[in-house]
Amino acid sequence: MNVLVTGGAGFIGRPVHDRLWMAADECEAVIHLAAKVGLGVDICDIDEYALQNDVGTAMALRVAAERGVPRFVYASSMVVYGEGSYRCRHHGSVRPTPRDRGDLDARRFEVRCSYCGDDLLPGLVPESAPLDPRNAYAATKVHGEQLAAIWSRETGGEVVALRFHNVYGPGMPRDTPYAGVASIFTDSLLRGEAPRVFEDGRQRRTLCTSLT
Question: Taking the C-alpha atoms of 197, 205, 130 and 57 in order, what is their torsion angle to the nearest 10 degrees?
């Protein structure tokens, strides 16, 4: 199978490229990895995220449609789920709201129930969980999935969205505390230092994905 990889020089793209046999005849699939990454926490970056991620994905889908490519793999992200899955002891499953600044200043870091104010209990996030993007990057990943679904319906092609979370391995970027948390913690432990953890240290993360 001959595959076109966008973002083939990037962190995830390089090992994907290395595992594929590339040839010069027709393209049979697209693996779309190119994107502006990060959390998009600065509102001044919102247009750049929309331009590079939304428009970039739309262009890749258009070309795939024009060339009759039957398969499209889209690199999405776990951030499409927002804060994740939570349960209240009294009200069952509750969709978490943004944390209150007063709670953070008082060093109360757990997400609270919007009905009774009790701390919510975190749980596993199923693939069927509702999408709740809370930054520009997450919003573009949701939109990319929607565009890919439209491409599939219109062309009859097969599409798969991979919702990555904390991917780590050789060549990973270490300039962002979010994406590089695995390597940052590992480096601290290898130096005999305790990893630097913010808030109360009770945070939990989903299982990371290794490229090794």
Answer: 90
Q: What contacts 201, CB < 8 A, 6 or more positions away?
A: none
Q: Which of 127, 129, 128, 108 is nearest to 119 (CA)?
A: 108
Q: DSSP character for 20?
A: S
pTM score, two decimals?
0.80
> Which residue bears the tokens 């990060």?
38
Which pairs count as long-range contacts for 45-49, CB under 8 Å and 24+ apart, including other chains? Answer: 45/136, 46/136, 49/136, 49/137, 49/139, 49/140
- 120 close to 87: Cβ distance less than 8 angstroms: yes
In the block, tokens 């793999």 appear at 73
- Residues counted in the chain: 212
What confidence tier does 60 reach under pLDDT thresholds 50, 70, 90? Answer: very high
Q: How confident is the model at residue 20 (pLDDT cuts 50, 70, 90)?
A: low
Report the DSSP beta bridge partners of residue 93: 87
Question: Do 91 and 116 touch, CB atoms closer than 8 A?
Answer: yes
Average pLDDT of the chain is 85
SS (H, E, C) 60-90: HHHHHHHCCCCEEEEEEEHHHHCCCEEEECC
Q: Report whether 45 contacts 136 (CB < 8 A).
A: yes
Phi, psi of 206 (to 5 degrees): -70, 165
